[in-house]
Specification:
The protein has six helices and six strands. The chain is an alpha/beta fold. The chain has one domain: 3-Layer(aba) Sandwich (Rossmann fold), CATH 3.40.50. Strands 1, 2, 3, 4, 5 and 6 form a six-stranded parallel beta sheet that branches.
Length: 201
């Protein structure tokens, strides 16, 4: 009798322990899947540019198409002579004087953009006064600025350095230069650059 009682008590204890073990198991709906990490939101991109002859515009259009960004032309109330030599002479004086023309265009929803491409022709080793005016007009903090420049053989020169100086403390992506031509940038070069920036769509 005592032996039978002991066996029954042992069985009851085992059932009780099993019940406690089941109660400690986490609860959740049947077939529930593990929580997944939310993907980062895609960058919202603005492609801002100033173009005198159309070369910088051609590259800007390519960038906007490849990134899905919004194309924005920087325009001013300022005019340049059609004659090339007269134009370059005027631009040189303006750059030396730190001239900033009055802007006549404004990007919509400025605060929404995470990355801003800023394009300009290389004039006298730096960027055009219209671009200087654009940089001075907006707050770039919290955005990544990506400069790009077109040139007739001068390359980067002081373009990137001067832009970083004007926008001190702002985050910059890798700058790029492209030979000035109406057909725009080399597609492979452009694609590799945008991929490196994480901006290609």
């Amino acid at each position: 009798m005592k032996k039978t009682t002991g066996i029954l008590m042992s069985a009851a204890l085992m059932i009780s322990m099993a019940a406690c073990g089941n109660a400690a198991a986490p609860e959740g709906p049947a077939g529930a899947e593990p929580a997944q990490t939310k993907a980062a939101a895609p960058k919202k991109i603005l492609v801002a540019y100033y173009s005198y002859s159309g070369n910088t515009q051609a590259v800007a259009q390519q960038i906007a198409k490849a990134t899905g960004g919004t194309l924005f032309e920087i325009t001013t109330d300022h005019q340049y002579p059609e004659a090339y030599n007269a134009m370059t002479a005027q631009a040189k004086k303006e750059i030396q004087a730190g001239f900033k023309p009055e802007l006549t265009s404004k990007p919509e929803n400025w605060a929404d953009y995470d990355m801003v491409f800023v394009g300009s022709p290389n004039w006298w080793g730096t960027y055009a006064p219209a671009v200087s005016a654009f940089l001075a007009a907006y707050d770039f903090k919290g955005k990544t600025v990506v400069p790009f420049f077109t040139h007739g053989g001068g390359g980067m020169q002081n373009c990137e350095r001067d832009m970083k100086k004007q926008l001190a403390g702002v985050t910059f992506g890798t700058a790029m230069t492209f030979p000035g031509r109406s057909s725009g940038a080399n597609e492979k070069t452009l694609a590799a650059w945008l991929t490196q920036l994480g901006a290609a769509k």
